[in-house]
Amino acid sequence: MARPSGKRNSDYLDRRKELLEDAIGRLLAECQNRPSLRSLADAAGVSLPTIVHYFGSRGQLLESVFKLLEEGGRPYLDRVREPTGVFSTSIRDLVCFIADGFRSGALVDIHSLGLMEGIRNDKVGPLYLKHVLEPTIEAIGIRLQKHIDRGEMRSVEVRYAANALLSPILVAFLHQTDLSGKNSFPVDVDAFLRSHATGFIRGYAKSKNKKNAES
């Protein structure tokens, strides 16, 4: 029996996800070279017409990439949202948790891809923000708001505070890895992370809790 017009094969979505995962591997490995759609097709072991059939344009493929990365990051962000103890402990745990993601290489690759593809690109840039960077900022903000609600943290705009917590960690790891700073301008990343966490706690803890920054 013929397939109704417009209806996709039952394995269409599975095949599309397989191709997407292959393309992600090439994109993350070679983001500095901005691999072409043909190169991404080669990485997936298919022809250019096939990759176009499943994704359309390179921009549409990148949108699918960022959506898949967002989906894969949900369990990670679930952990980011939940405090782990009192404010000082929770912030130190959060800084370490984010840093561990960067140390694994996965987060550095993802953010490098987003920045390489998205900077000065008014179509791809917003996709990286929507599906990768903004969900991370939002998750950190939710954790911080819970500490505010507990009376442990000053009442502030949590979005600003979330940016203040995340941005130095992101820059530090990009500085040492993708920018090759570990060779020319090496940094004791562990010492930096301790200093950053302590400074954040001191700056945002409620007055009665500021002594926690010294513990």
Which key phrases capture this entry?
mainly alpha, Arc Repressor Mutant, subunit A, Tetracycline Repressor, domain 2, elongated
In short:
The protein is an all-alpha fold. Helices cover 71% and strands 0% of the residues.
The counted number of beta strands is: 0
Shape: elongated
The number of distinct helices, counting runs of at least 4 residues, comes to 11
The structure class reads mainly alpha
What does it look like?
- With 215 residues, the protein is mainly alpha-helical.
- It has two domains: 12-63, Homeodomain-like (Arc Repressor Mutant, subunit A, Orthogonal Bundle); 73-214, Tetracycline Repressor, domain 2, CATH 1.10.357.
- Helix content is 71%, strand content 0%.
- The chain has eleven helices and no strands.
- The chain has helices at 12-29, 37-44, 48-55, 58-72, 74-81, 87-103, 106-118, 124-149, 158-176, 181-184, 189-204.
- The longest helix is centred in the middle third of the chain and has 26 residues, at 124-149.
Question: How are the elements arranged and paired?
Answer:
Layout: H1 12-29, H2 37-44, H3 48-55, H4 58-72, H5 74-81, H6 87-103, H7 106-118, H8 124-149, H9 158-176, H10 181-184, H11 189-204
Helix pairs in contact: 1-2, 1-4, 2-3, 4-8, 5-8, 6-9, 6-11, 7-8, 8-9, 9-11
